[in-house]
Amino acid sequence: MRLTLRQLQIFAAVADTGSTVAAGLQVALSQSASSAALNELEALLGAQLFDRIGKRLVLNDTGRRLLPQARALLNGAVDIESQFGLGDGKPSAGGMLTRLRVGASTTIGNYLLPALVASHLREVPNTIIDATIGNTSDIAAAVARLDVDLGLIEGPCHESALQVRPWIEDELVLVCSPSHPLMAGDPATRIGLKALHRQRWLVREPGSGTREAVEHALSPHLHQWEQPMQLGSTEAIKQAAAEGLGLACLSLCAVQDMLTLQRLVLVNSSLPRLTRRFYLVHHRQKQFSAGLQRFVARCQAAK
Fold this sequence. Notes:
The chain has helices at 5-17, 20-27, 31-45, 61-83, 106-111, 113-123, 136-144, 193-197, 209-222, 234-242, 252-260, 290-301; strands at 50-53, 56-59, 98-105, 127-134, 150-153, 162-176, 201-203, 229-230, 247-251, 265-266, 274-283. It contains twelve helices and eleven strands. Helix 1 packs across helix 3 and helix 1 packs across helix 4 (61-83). Helices cover 44% and strands 21% of the residues. Strand 1 (50-53) and strand 2 form a beta hairpin.
């Protein structure tokens, strides 16, 4: 075999950083050694992997095709090191460590993933789970780059490189402050669509699975937002709604705590029941280890 993992590691580092100088710092090599390894790889493959633009190296189409394969091989090597205590983790008395990298979109990462991880670690204690949390588009992109082994997302996925598995159904609810004008009369009164349309709505940023799901659920009934206020997290929306700044449509699991504390109340509207689907996503070329298969089974059992 003429290819080396070191060459692929440097190739991936250059793809991430855009230069052999920064790549060398990332993999603890000098700039000249990183540049030489990249040149060797390109000579061996008989193809340029980057466009040279000034001092930056930008992946070309050949490099983009190679990158997922390179990451898959590097990730496999990291898995082997973890199993035998050669990487960051050390083997414990109970057996070899398994390291999993899981990405989760915001609602799942904040309100569902901790319980899933805790349940998994009780059964498989010799596991390290590194969690990355971001909006749905960020997590889908991380899975496509093989930066994480598995993604748990709350919105449709548009990455062609990914395999998408339907997961659990999530209920969306309308909430507001108990002091909101809509609650001035009988809180049990059903609020009509015209009244809902006139309210200020608190929404997530574009790229958020919650934003996309809420727009998909509400647009057929409200058509467009009258006075939207955009906030960058579910927690920010909850706090803003509790302060009376507007209405929000959020996952029931995300607002259950503030409903219990009576800082938020459910809005009894004439809308039909609103639901969305959560998804498990992984790269089509991802090779599942026994540990990853076991964690996926844990997630699916949570339905």
